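Work package 3, deliverable 3.1, input record:
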Amino acid sequence: MEEIKLMKGNEAFAHAAVRSGCDGYFGYPITPQSEVMETLQELKPWEETGMVVLQAESEVSAINMVYAGAACGKKVMTSSSSPGVSLKQEGISYIAAAELPCLILNVMRGGPGLGTIQPSQADYFQSVKGGGHGDYHMIVLAPSTVQEMADFVDLGYELAFKYRNPVLMLSDGVIGQMMEKVVLPPYKPRRTMEEVIAQCPWATTGKVGRPHNIITSLALESEVMEATNNRLQAKYREIEENEVRFEEYMLDDAEYVFVAFGSSARICKQAVEYARAEGIKVGVLRPITLFPFPTKKIQELATRVKGFMSIEMSAGQMVEDVRLAVNGTKPVGFYGRQGGIIPSAEEALEALKTQIIK
Amino acid sequence: MTKQDIIKPENLVYGKTKVLTDNIMHYCPGCSHGVIHKLIAEVIEEMGIQEKTIGIAPVGCSVFAYNYLDIDMQEAAHGRAPALATAIKRLMPDKVVFTYQGDGDLAAIGTAETIHACNRGENIVIFFVNNGIYGMTGGQMAPTTLEGMKTATCPYGRNTDMYGFPLRISDLLKEIDGTCYVTRQSVHKTANIVRAKKAIRKAFQNSIDGKGTSIVEFVSHCNTNWKMTPVQSNAWMEEHMFAKYPLGDLKDTPKKRFDEINHL
Amino acid sequence: MKKEIIIAGFGGQGVLSMGKILAYAGLMQGKEVTWMPAYGPEQRGGTANVTVILSDDPIASPLLQKYDIVVVLNQPSMDKFEPRVKPGGILIFDPNGMTRVPERKDINVYRIPATDTAAALGQVKTFNMFVLGGLLKVDPVVELDKVMLGLKKSLPERHHKLLPANEAAMLKGGEIIEKL
């Protein structure tokens, strides 16, 4: 029988990590995600599954530990919150360039700067458009429930290893701190060293019966570096073709569409309830993957709805991708709150009325 | 004895270790990286650990070390090699893991990673090549640049009022409980090369024995950026570098073990 | 059925754990639940609040503007949340340290002298259970036996000897709550 638990998003992520057959977690404390490492330390997975849990001296060090673990073909992860994720950007660029599979969790808080510990979604650009130096993309998953905080661990690793690419789970303080019921995934054993070598013949697992493996992102010859870039871009196009995920909520008869991810999407679902009580036909498109973005779905919706409203905990970031998809064919509005303030369902509905329905 | 006799395998008195690849090294003539690479490679072969050794190249002149050492290697972001080594050793404890770092990498941008890997007593080896200057980027000031020494970013000589003092990082690291072996070597003379090779072997053995972090510093020169001939720079190194960075063992005791300490 | 509840007070009054017990009890009754704290300052003696939603259907937003039940345990919380009780909803307050009583006439206001009662009985540590007992008396959003199960779930095993005292506090809370 499946066991239903009540736990925080951060705790569910940690439990799911152990159950996913994860080999190593490397992190550094920061609010509002510290429960991830606290839960892992309490679970002591090194005694049960052999998973390594290590508190590093900084986020910089932690992401570079992830780089090295991923370069060994291991299932490794780190978690942090916005300022800490900024520190990780250098390492993420190297990981993307060296095409290493790993999982990174960002439980977003309000910035810029030290900002606030309250929830935010203002790291959208950083997550989706690059963040570090150079042309690269992470696959970005946006959970909106505690259940998804658990479920996206497995999904994240599946995609990371399929494409040899870093996967970011872009969560926020609401999802991280909220308790909801969750059914934890079943235990998967950690892969044996033989399985790691079979799955990742490119990894630095020791030069046994093959030429030596090198994990590097350096190529001083421009032609070589351009070829690397072209290969990466081709991979990103393939990801855009195959891995778009989204949730449709009451869109069948919708005349208006809220576009929102993570906890904002839940607020929009509440707003839909209020709107429909007033007879306004509105639904929610919730991008689950932020890269790749559900551009085609939005284009399809644009042929049959009257307008879009992007609701975010930011000054308006994802709305730019909505506008690019709609490409001027329908009005696109935006409403957001910042600094750790969460937009209310009432505010979202009011913004839809004043900006789009008029 | 004919030439044909001389090159028979049984008459061979010296050969290149198989742990070095056949790639032509990019190092400047006179540079000691080649010698240090060779010594590490020889020790890996002699200890029979080629298949289980993972090396980490830094950012700096030795960034391409992975092209010369025929073992699995990773290239680290600038300064992060000890973090990489930590993760590899923790995830694959049966492997022998080492970093190869320069003074800028280890003692400036990577100071935190260096100190904390040592403080955790990671069972890794850190090879530290200290030539008092940034070589790859064209001869800028390093944390280990000597007082008064001229570089591209202190063209009038290192002024300690402006830039502080040459950092004896190995002396700091020897104070850390997690380190077991801290030694300072050089490879500019045959006797030194023999001693350096012994130190490399000892460091690897410490790692295999789980004694803690071993640091082998190689006091070196950079004739190109010091703007001297190799012979001149060796002499300058002996006179000035060895005065600030004297050769010899700084520490040789296993790290404290958790189960041997009286806890609260 | 859907109940939208907020509990607000000072850090250290057991606001978050009261919410947690409610959430656990709801879970055991087969409800969908969310427990959303205003996190951070509660560890430092500031104001703390937690939104708990119990529902038969999946819960959309875990954060709300209006509530069915509002429990306020200090004056700043009353000032902030009295206007946010839905018309016809419930406001419960502990008069200890309050400078005024609630003013709204379109809601049901209840007073529970939990601080004083807990102090008089030497049960200061179970203060929040008096309040919870009061809440369940005026609106049994979850069953009492489920609350005890929830409490057992949320307490570490070494504290299970405290369960009888907590149950007693909850029953007492039901007796001392009064409608204004």
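The first strand of chain A starts at residue 4 and ends at 8.
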